[in-house]
Amino acid sequence: MTRSLTAALLGLASFAFGQTEALPKAETILDRYVEVTGGKAAYEKRKNEIETGTIEVKAQGLKGTYTRYMGEPAEAYSIIELAGVGKIEEGVDKGVAWEKNAMLGPRVKSGVEKAQALREATFNSPLHWRELNSKVETAGTETIDGEICYKVVLTPAEAPPETMYFQKKSGFAVKITTTVVSIMGEAPAEMFANDYKSFGGIMMATRITQRAGGQELMLTTQDVKTNQPIAPDRFDPPAEIKALLTKAADKKQ
Amino acid sequence: MAMGMAGWLVDKPNQRLGTMYMRDATLNFVINPRAEVFAGPVAILVDGGSASTSEIFAEGLKDLGRARVFGTKTAAAALPSIFERLPNGDGFQYATANYISEGGKALEGIGVTPDVEVKLTREGLLAGHDAVLDAALEWIRKKK
Lengths: 253, 144
Fold this sequence. Notes:
heterodimer, A: alpha+beta, 6 helices, B: alpha/beta, 3-stranded antiparallel β-sheet, 3-stranded parallel β-sheet
C-alpha cells in the first residue's frame, strides 16, 4: 500500500514535471514590459524628461537630492547633492561620457565604463533593447517578494551582461543584477525597483534600492516631467571636463 | 576624496594610491590627473589626528614618491566602516574592506610613518612657531 502510494506520488511528480510551463522568449518579455509600462506610442511621444527625487546612503547616514535630465537620442546630465559630500555630477553628451565629483575629481570615461554610461543614457531605453543588446535570453524563474519573476539575461556588445527580473503577473521589472565597471575596478551590483507610478503616460519605478561595493543607496523619485523646454547647453560637459578633452586631444597631436 | 585631491598633484595617468579589498570587489584608488597639475614639491603634514582618507592620501603619495610627509605618526584608522544598531540599543561598528597602499603596506593599526618626524612643542607654539610647518617649508625651499 505504502509502496504503491509512493509510486503513485512519484508518478504524480513526474506528471507535474512534464506539465512545467514553457518559459516565454526573452523578446516577448521585453516587449511586454514596453506594453505594461505604457506602450510604444506613449514612449515615442516623449522627447526628454527631468526627474527629481531624494537619495539616501544608509550606512553613512547621508541624505540628499538628485535631478536627472535626459534627452533623445542619448543625452544625459545628473546632479546629486549630498550633505557632507558635495555635488556628484555625471553626463553623456554626443558620445562623451564624463563624471565630476569631489571623491574622484573630474574625468572622462572610456572603455567598458563608457559603453555602460552610453547605454544608461539611451532615452526611452525599454524601446531600444534590440539595438542595445547583441543577445537576450530567458534564463528561468525566481521568486522575489512572493512574486514569480522571469529572469532575462541581456548581453550588450561592449559591456558585461545584465540580468533583469520581470514579474510574471504584472510584467514590471523588479530587479536588475550586473557588474558595474569603473576606473576603480569591477563590482557586482543589484538594484531593486518598486512602487511603479505613472508619469506622462509611462509607469516608472519610484523606489530604487541599489547595492554595490558594500554600499546601499536608496533613490526615491518625487517627480518626472516630460517634454520640457531644456536649455540647449544643459548637456554640455562642464569646463573642467572640456579642459580634460582638450588636454587629451593636445597629447594625441 | 584622496583620489580627487591627488589629481591636482600627479600628471602621470593610471597611478594609484592603493587598493581597497572588499568581500566581493577589489577597488583601485586610481588618480585622475586634472587638466592643470601642480608640478612643484609637495609636503604633507600629519599627526595623530590624521585619520582615514588623509592617511590614504599621505601614504599613497609617499609611496609614489610624489610627496614628503612631515609630522608624527597618524591615527592608524583608515578602513571604511558601517554602524549598526543592535537589538539591545548598543552601536556596532565594523570594517567593510581592507586597504593596502601602493607600496604594499596596510595602514589599519599601523598608520603612516612620516619621512621626517617632527613634534610640536609647547615652547615652540608659545613662541609662534609650528615646527612641522617650518620643517616642511625648509625642505620646499631647498628643493627649489
